[in-house]
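Repro case for the chain-ordering regression, as requested:
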Amino acid sequence: QVQLKESGPGLVQPSQTLSLTCTVSGFSLTSYNVHWVRQPPGKGLEWMGRMRYNGDTSYNSALKSRLSISRDTSKNQVFLKMNSLQTDDTGTYYCTRDTIYSSYRGFDYWGQGVMVTVSS
Amino acid sequence: DIQMTQSPASLSASLGETVSIECLASEGISNSLAWYQQKPGKSPQLLIYGASSLQDGVPSRFSGSGSGTQYSLKISGMQPEDEGVYYCQQGYKYPYTFGAGTKLELK
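-- result from build under test --
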């Protein structure tokens, strides 16, 4: 069955770099787009960026200077790296997928999320 | 960026009551709209995509409608398990954007 699972450190120091991995199963990264979405505690959802099925990337302009998304299709993994972390980067980070249909189908599967705290 | 204005921010509904949540996009999004439900401590769950298509496994009491810049989610007959926060999201243009959310509680 389709699964996405985020992994990474729960605690990151201010100004350091966050590295997260999304490991997927039940589908191919060359057939679906994988996105990163984050949620500060008690707040709403923010789209961060996307790894397209063909390897192209798109980023939220507010994060673009700090954010990088890459993948290893042989390991079924998508990676997020974000530098210069600050306390307002604290939150739950999700990976999710959408399809490559011409009409929009939404994010149909989500990972469980990983809580990241930025603190010294 | 496309702004998604969601209303109301919160509402309380009685068992069996019909509930509506609205989402207004700052520009036309050609029905590239999805609705999600999120319960405390859980990941969001897709309810509606393409503005009006029901995701597999979602109860038929959920429905979506709208076009252009105005969209709505309707729950026909509130159930206890429908409590949670609901988000709209546009998938028309990058960066994708979400509404601020509507917290729905059972009265």
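Ordering looks correct now. The radius of gyration of chain B is 13 Å.
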